[in-house]
């Protein structure tokens, strides 16, 4: 029964997110066929895991790879030359194969190819969730972490997914077009590596522990970027947040946008840490006055950060909308 529950916790969140994007993107591809792409994404996740194990075994013969990974430099190196390239490469190959197969049978829309990318990435997420929950399950904190990370692989792959989508009616295998996809893929690899490094920043001593405060703002920025790509593919005008007639105005609004991401991202981070702290307490401790005051203070802080971010966001939206009338 526990195993079935873990499978559901691993698969249902990315599956529901896929259904959500399927409802937003007009396509002739049926939902059942899209579930096949989801399954292929999970298979690509197992392939990536196998390739990573092979990579680490081979490299261990040359250098003491396990010792190198104990330092922050080693962690960054592993993410850049192993995890990011292998995982983003497996997803990219899967989506290209699907696009090539269906391009000979249907006239694919650009948004449909982007949906392929999302389906494969979310299937990859389901496989990763399964691995983490079955082999590193630590109760509620593990479940919360996996729920929060549900859209992350889709956000990683959005740049090369968009690049492929824009080339659906052209030869995506020409050298010029391959260059565009390659640049977007490299962008995804770097973002993938950066998120993984930021997520473990709290394990290290000061000042490296401060890296963890950059995780959720960066994730929020990647989510906004994914939505921007989707709006472009659907012929919608992406929401403008940074405008200005002079370089000084433009720079000021860039700063405000960065501040919005920092405030909004860390509002989520406060809730995340609060959930992890409460999960280790027993039921009686939850009714303790000190715990109640702590929860109230954390919720208040998160609310203040979130409302501040929302106020600045609305301010930037008003400034951008006014500019259209000049």
UniProtKB/TrEMBL annotation:
Membrane-spanning segments: 6-22, 34-51, 113-132, 152-172, 184-200, 206-224, 255-275, 295-316
User: Pfam families of this UniProt entry?
Assistant: PrsW-protease
Which Gene Ontology molecular-function terms are recorded?
A: peptidase activity
Q: Has keyword Protein biosynthesis?
A: no
Instruction: Enumerate the UniProt keywords alphabetically.
Output: Hydrolase, Membrane, Protease, Transmembrane, Transmembrane helix
Protein's GO biological process: proteolysis
Give the EC number.
3.4.-.-
EC top class, as a word: hydrolase
Q: What is this protein called?
A: PrsW family glutamic-type intramembrane protease
Which organism encodes this protein?
Scytonema tolypothrichoides VB-61278_2
């Amino acid at each position: 029964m526990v195993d079935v529950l873990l499978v559901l916790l691993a698969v249902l969140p990315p599956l529901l997110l896929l259904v959500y994007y399927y409802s937003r993107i007009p396509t002739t591809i049926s939902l059942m066929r899209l579930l096949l792409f989801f399954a292929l994404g999970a298979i690509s996740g197992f392939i990536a895991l196998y390739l990573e194990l092979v990579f680490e075994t081979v490299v261990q013969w040359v250098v003491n790879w396990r010792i190198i990974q104990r330092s922050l430099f080693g962690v960054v190196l592993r993410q850049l030359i192993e995890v990011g390239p292998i995982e983003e490469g497996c997803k990219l190959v899967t989506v290209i194969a699907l696009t090539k197969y269906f391009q000979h049978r249907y006239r694919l829309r650009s948004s449909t190819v982007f949906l392929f990318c999302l389906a494969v990435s979310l299937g990859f997420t389901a496989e990763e969730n399964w691995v983490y929950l079955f082999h590193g399950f630590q109760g509620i904190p593990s479940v919360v972490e996996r729920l929060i990370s549900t859209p992350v692989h889709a956000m990683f792959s959005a740049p090369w997914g968009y690049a492929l989508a824009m080339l659906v009616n052209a030869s995506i295998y020409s050298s010029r077009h391959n260059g565009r996809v390659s640049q977007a893929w490299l962008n995804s690899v770097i973002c993938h590596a950066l998120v993984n490094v930021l997520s473990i920043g709290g394990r290290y001593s000061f000042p490296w522990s401060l890296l963890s405060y950059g995780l959720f703002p960066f994730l929020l920025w990647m989510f906004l970027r994914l939505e921007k790509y989707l709006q472009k593919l659907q012929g919608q005008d992406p929401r403008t947040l940074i405008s200005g007639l002079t370089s000084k105005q433009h720079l000021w609004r860039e700063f405000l946008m960065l501040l919005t991401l920092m405030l909004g991202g860390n509002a989520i981070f406060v809730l995340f840490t609060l959930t992890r702290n409460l999960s280790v307490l027993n039921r009686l401790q939850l009714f303790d006055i000190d715990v109640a005051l702590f929860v109230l203070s954390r919720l208040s802080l998160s609310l203040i950060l979130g409302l501040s971010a929302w106020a600045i966001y609305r301010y930037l939206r008003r400034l951008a909308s006014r500019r259209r009338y000049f």
